[in-house]
Amino acid sequence: MSKEFLTAIPDGAAGTTADGSLPVRQERRGNVLMNKEFLAFIAVAALLAAVPFTFGSSITFIAMCLAKGLAVLGILILLRAGQVSFGHAMYFAIGAYAAAFLSSAFRGIDMMVLVAAAILASGVAGAIVGVFVTRYRGIFFGMINLAFSMVFYSILEKAFHITGGSDGMRIRRPTLLGMELRRAEFDVAIYYVILVFALLSVWLVWRYLRSPMGEALRAVKSNETRLEYVGLSAKSVLLGGYIASAVLCGLGGVFMGMVQGLATPEHAFWTRSSELVFIAVLGGPAHVAGAFGGTVLFEAVRTYAAALLDDSWQLILGVTLILIILWAPGGMVELFRRFTGRNRVKTVTSGEAGR
Amino acid sequence: MSEQSAPRLLLQAEGLKLHFGGIIAADGINLSLYDGEHLAIIGPNGAGKTTFLNICTGYLRPQGGYVRFENREITAHPPRDITRLGIARAFQIPQLFAEQTVLENMLLAASVRERHWNPLRNLHAIPERREMEELLELVGCSDVRDRVASELPEGKRKLADIAIALALKPRVLLMDEPTSGVASADKFDVMETLMNALRKAKVSSVFVEHDMEMVSRYATRVAVWAQGKIQTTGKPDVVLNDPEVIRNVIGG
């Protein structure tokens, strides 16, 4: 069938020589780009891996940034589909509480079991809630997510005989692959575990967003009619992205919970959800690096501005966001590209190919 | 169907009825499309031509009647299911994935067709890439292959829309004014290329068209729509010379 398609090309339909050279040039460009990004990825990974030996005092700060960055990465997936959720802190809390329940039920439970439980719990919750919320788009999508998360928040607060109410639940220090760790050892160990999971997630999400399924997410944003008319349900595409984003938030939550040794209803509160969206916009949705860059900036401003200016860190962040939205709507990713003279990839290739 | 050598029945609409308030969009439409046919639908604006395509692809649910495709009832099935069965559609207003390049639009369609859902495989690395590039060449879109769909001129958008439909390897292609928006100098070239492609790929088609020259050249059969009904059907040379059709449709 396809052969017949090919032979149907009329004479002179296109300049084959001019066209024949295009794919090669483009692929090479693609490789250079990928290699550069890959090198940057390796460099950042190496730098982060060296932190415990160089800036040992900041590992908890960075570990928390990475944990939160994982959740922001989840928000980024939904932004690809043009959707904003104001309730994803729920999955963050589900991750943390999954660890809290298990660690209080089983003494000496392993960190990997807690992580697996958080992935499972947030994934299942994401699938169930996702079936309902992926029917909606835009403001309705955002609001219904908010509603689900606030119901969950209320349950965590009110059912204090199970959840400890607003005091939350302690997460006992787990073992790591069967090893009992002391406080200082644990801090370093969990730092590396989070780092490994963060790097792995970045790589996976980066690949996913370039796969047919990930590209279909962008199609949900641009044209659902055509998506239906190529034979794909926009709802199931979005559901796939939704579950992935829930799992990433759950991972962020379990790591944050283990670092702090605590799971509180506060994790599920709506301001936490909008904080994740805030960071995603600040960092820039165009690239996975934006999620972590945004988180580090956000947490740094919060930590240091709070020390310098007491209560005005929100003001500083607010002004920063306004500036970003007005002058660099692509967030830090766009700023980075501007300063390094790297235009948007698409524009470059289209300019070339047009000739 | 009773004839021995009759070609296979592909698409069959029977007694389709649909009213929007007081407006009659379909009032007992009976139409069959046989394998190898290229059926042109003509008629004045508001006669229900696009509504017919919308019912056939499941976008609208008729209040009466049914649609069958290869002897399977498909009335009001979701468009995605009907598409997967082999009915593709090109739109009057092109429906493209605006943020992606033309090639990416095609690759996405091919991925759905072949069910490439491995989340670690790059969209550009699917084996159908060459096929899609050639299909773009076929419809004369390879010059805009790497341009973002939203930046295309209208004529190219139209062609890209048809190319996406063809990427699905359909049995039947429904086209709503395929050459509207294409520069009039290129219209016949485009249609020629398109019909050649359809014939070679053994795709049957239904197309809504206002240009009678186009209809007489490329249609194997014509159906004349009027107020939600089919006024007449037949060979182009017969129908287009029917005085009543000339008065109502062609002469205006």
UniProtKB/TrEMBL annotation, chain A:
<feature type="transmembrane region" description="Helical">
    <location>
        <begin position="61"/>
        <end position="79"/>
    </location>
</feature>
<dbReference type="InterPro" id="IPR001851">
    <property type="entry name" value="ABC_transp_permease"/>
</dbReference>
<feature type="transmembrane region" description="Helical">
    <location>
        <begin position="86"/>
        <end position="106"/>
    </location>
</feature>
<protein>
    <submittedName>
        <fullName>Amino acid/amide ABC transporter membrane protein 2, HAAT family</fullName>
    </submittedName>
</protein>
<feature type="transmembrane region" description="Helical">
    <location>
        <begin position="189"/>
        <end position="209"/>
    </location>
</feature>
<keyword id="KW-0472">Membrane</keyword>
<keyword id="KW-1003">Cell membrane</keyword>
<keyword id="KW-0812">Transmembrane</keyword>
<keyword id="KW-1133">Transmembrane helix</keyword>
<dbReference type="GO" id="GO:0015658">
    <property type="term" value="F:branched-chain amino acid transmembrane transporter activity"/>
</dbReference>
<dbReference type="Pfam" id="PF02653">
    <property type="entry name" value="BPD_transp_2"/>
</dbReference>
<dbReference type="InterPro" id="IPR043428">
    <property type="entry name" value="LivM-like"/>
</dbReference>
<feature type="transmembrane region" description="Helical">
    <location>
        <begin position="276"/>
        <end position="301"/>
    </location>
</feature>
<feature type="transmembrane region" description="Helical">
    <location>
        <begin position="38"/>
        <end position="55"/>
    </location>
</feature>
<feature type="transmembrane region" description="Helical">
    <location>
        <begin position="313"/>
        <end position="330"/>
    </location>
</feature>
<feature type="transmembrane region" description="Helical">
    <location>
        <begin position="229"/>
        <end position="256"/>
    </location>
</feature>
<dbReference type="GO" id="GO:0005886">
    <property type="term" value="C:plasma membrane"/>
</dbReference>
<feature type="transmembrane region" description="Helical">
    <location>
        <begin position="112"/>
        <end position="132"/>
    </location>
</feature>
Automatic annotation (TrEMBL), chain B:
<dbReference type="GO" id="GO:1903806">
    <property type="term" value="P:L-isoleucine import across plasma membrane"/>
</dbReference>
<dbReference type="InterPro" id="IPR003439">
    <property type="entry name" value="ABC_transporter-like_ATP-bd"/>
</dbReference>
<dbReference type="InterPro" id="IPR003593">
    <property type="entry name" value="AAA+_ATPase"/>
</dbReference>
<keyword id="KW-0547">Nucleotide-binding</keyword>
<dbReference type="Pfam" id="PF00005">
    <property type="entry name" value="ABC_tran"/>
</dbReference>
<dbReference type="InterPro" id="IPR027417">
    <property type="entry name" value="P-loop_NTPase"/>
</dbReference>
<dbReference type="InterPro" id="IPR051120">
    <property type="entry name" value="ABC_AA/LPS_Transport"/>
</dbReference>
<keyword id="KW-0067">ATP-binding</keyword>
<dbReference type="GO" id="GO:0005304">
    <property type="term" value="F:L-valine transmembrane transporter activity"/>
</dbReference>
<dbReference type="GO" id="GO:0005524">
    <property type="term" value="F:ATP binding"/>
</dbReference>
<dbReference type="GO" id="GO:0015188">
    <property type="term" value="F:L-isoleucine transmembrane transporter activity"/>
</dbReference>
<dbReference type="GO" id="GO:0015808">
    <property type="term" value="P:L-alanine transport"/>
</dbReference>
<protein>
    <submittedName>
        <fullName>Amino acid/amide ABC transporter ATP-binding protein 1, HAAT family</fullName>
    </submittedName>
</protein>
<dbReference type="GO" id="GO:0016887">
    <property type="term" value="F:ATP hydrolysis activity"/>
</dbReference>
<dbReference type="GO" id="GO:0042941">
    <property type="term" value="P:D-alanine transmembrane transport"/>
</dbReference>
<dbReference type="GO" id="GO:0015192">
    <property type="term" value="F:L-phenylalanine transmembrane transporter activity"/>
</dbReference>
<dbReference type="GO" id="GO:0005886">
    <property type="term" value="C:plasma membrane"/>
</dbReference>
<keyword id="KW-0813">Transport</keyword>
<feature type="domain" description="ABC transporter">
    <location>
        <begin position="11"/>
        <end position="252"/>
    </location>
</feature>
<dbReference type="GO" id="GO:1903805">
    <property type="term" value="P:L-valine import across plasma membrane"/>
</dbReference>
